[in-house]
Amino acid sequence: MDTPGHDIEQMTGMVAGGAQVVLFTTGRGTPTGSPIAPVIKISTNSKIYQRMNDNIDFNSGTIIEGSETIQSVGDRLWQELHDVCNGKLTKSEILKQHDFGLWRIGPTF
Description:
The chain is of the alpha/beta class and about 110 residues long. It has a domain at about 40-100. It has helices spanning about 5-15, 45-50, 60-65, 70-85, 90-95, and strands spanning about 20-25, 40-45, 60. Strands 1-2-3 form a 3-stranded parallel sheet. Strand 2 (about 40-45), helix 2 and strand 3 form a beta-alpha-beta unit. The model has no long low-confidence stretch (mean pLDDT about 90).
């Protein structure tokens, strides 16, 4: 989906476009969530996951470390998505990170 690049505005755009759950990848650990849809935050490296474990739901850095395959991480992520769809709270829901932002392409009058 064509959404803004800024994290919060991007999530708002995806949810406004119909996303029921957001799979949000992060390399820096942006602590954000949505008031409308669950946000599963996925770290792209284990270092950020360990440093921000209270904010990030899922570590995919194990792929680049070689301790897991893309397939096994995909299977774990599918299970995480299944669990969230069945009521498991995401870290952003637990922390009440209810961010919302609208991207403006021009001046507002």
